[in-house]
Amino acid sequence: MGISFEAFIQMAAEPGAKEKMAANFLGWQGRALPPDWCGELVDLFSPDDKNPDSRRFIDWIDETMCISADTGGEKWGRKWDKETSVNPILNYKTPGVTTTNFASKVPDDAPDAVKAEVAAGALCFTVTMGTVFGQKVLKWNGLYDGKGGHFTPAGGHVPASDTDNFWVYTRVTDGVKVDY
């Protein structure tokens, strides 16, 4: 059963929403080529970005699926600066499944402990395309590719998690409303 994008965003703000979404997640069926991944998305559960107008973007740039963001306070990624070193990318694993590493987001002046955690895989994730209540989403596992572990910026130990976050497509790509 599908719900509107607006109702989906409202539901995401309710207690237990992430768990409800995880229980109702359906993996993507069929092809998942780069155009299927590209678009504008809302990051629903990142603890460090609570701006409801913040957006994530996946763009096909130089034959690579590049992740960028406009958080309202900053813009990062190749969408905005083709030469930036901040360039998390999606790497194809299987149909509907990619991996990524956000290490390029860590600044050069980060504490050595954080750099060591990142080098050990703290910011590696598996991203799975699918739907929840009729909305096209990307499901993210947790830190250390879902295994959990110590991450100083998160306040210490972070538990293992198969489902740590969801990004939902806004259904607008290049200014055109898209039906999934």
Task: List the main descriptive attributes of the protein structure presented here.
8-stranded antiparallel barrel, globular, 14 strands, disordered C terminus, 180 residues, 4 helices
What would you note in describing this structure?
The chain is built from four helices and 14 strands. The protein has one domain. It is of the alpha+beta class and 180 residues long.
Short synopsis of the structure:
This protein is α+β, with helices and mostly antiparallel strands. It is built from 4 helices and 14 strands.
Q: Please give the count of helices.
A: 4
Biggest pleated sheet: 8 strands, antiparallel, barrel
Distance between the termini: 13 Å
Number of domains: 1
**Strands, count:** 14
- Per DSSP, what share of the residues sits in E-state strands of 2 or more residues? 35-45%
Percentage of residues assigned to helices? 10-25%
The run of helices and strands is: HHEHEEEEEEHEEEEEEE
- Mean pLDDT, to the nearest integer, reads 93
Unreliable spans: 175-180
Report Rg: 16 Å
Oligomer: single chain
**Secondary-structure class:** alpha+beta
Shape: globular
Give, in spatial order, the strands making up the sheet with the most strands: 2-3-4-6-7-8-9-12
Question: How are the SSEs ordered, and which strands pair?
Answer:
Elements (H helix, E strand, L loop, with lengths): L4 H8 L4 H7 L2 E2 L6 H4 L1 E5 L11 E7 L2 E7 L4 E2 L12 E6 L2 E5 L10 H8 L4 E9 L2 E6 L8 E3 L4 E3 L6 E5 L2 E2 L2 E2 L3
Antiparallel strand pairs: 1-8, 2-3, 2-12, 3-4, 4-5, 4-6, 6-7, 7-8, 8-9, 9-12, 10-11, 13-14
